[in-house]
Input
Amino acid sequence: MTIDDRLFQQLVVLRRDLHRRPELGWDVERTATRIVHELRELGVSARRAAGTAVLADLPAEGGGAGIALRADIDALPIQEGTGQPFASEAPGIMHACGHDGHASALVGAAALLTKTPLPAPVRLIFQPAEEIAEGAIRLVEEGCLDGMAAIYALHLDVSLPIGVIAAPDGAVNASTDEFTVELRGSGGHAARPHEGTDAVVGAGLLIAALQTIVSRRAPPSDPAVVTVGRVTAGTAANVLAETALLEGTVRATTPQTRALLRSAVEQMARAIASAHGLDVAVTLREGTPPVVNEPGPTAVARRAAADVVGAEGVRTEPLRNMGGEDFSFYLERVPGCFVRIGARIEDGQERPAHSSRFDFDERAVGIAATYLATVARVAGSALRVRQA
Output
């Protein structure tokens, strides 16, 4: 299955249009409308779900359980700095993570999948609100996976060259929980610290102690992160701070380490507060679970990837990204696989995701479209064999 130049150019036009007019979170009305239009031009009936998500079903003779393909479609609150002629026209909003490419690739997959009969039904899921980790769980709750036996998705990755598809087993993205610790002392004059209790001292000790969770309590074999990203304390140089607020994130690739991190943050906060005469309030906010590729669907993904880029282009070694991905909520309901598609522009410049400079080689959109269509057919054929 190959993508011809005419379809590829159409996908580039679509990608640049979506890039020029990015939208955030659930507020992706224009994006969703454009996707529906593109699908209808292909003769694919689409429907809206959860407000601004787009779902489309491609039938197969005989029906049965189906294969879902998901693309995220929302942008980020970043002012673009690429200087591209198709740069964002929305102030402070940019497609800085490749979701414009993901959406375009799934439209391209739809075009390829409509050319010949399918071995199993395919459901296309164009999902908003990935960047705020709300889209997947709401769509799952609204039944987007009903009747689906497996789900597949991808991410364009500028750390990998064109012609590479990474499809590792196991964890490929981390969980993304957050914490807030408020330390409360009694304040006082900075010249007479013995008369009060200083929340800043407690905060400093806690920040240092939290770094020992990963180095001394988490298994070295399980990647983990504890980061304090924001500290707020004090009112003046000569006043003991009555309160200190610490905000941070804990990330893990296994459920066991995830639970350990969350428990250890609270234990340390309470212990240090007690040792220094401070009151403490700890809030833990649950985010996305880890994204874990199961062996069966991953084997299917690798076969499809090899059909697209050749066996030499398929990477199977662990590729753990400590960023979050709400695709994990789908994987809690049905098996699936999340791959990364090489998209690096080979000019020596760094264009990291979530930066104002982010951009990718548009040839990756064609590869991604071909992969999605191929994995739907390979997975559908395997499903049909199991059901026979």
About this structure: The mean pLDDT is 96. The chain has nine helices and 16 strands.
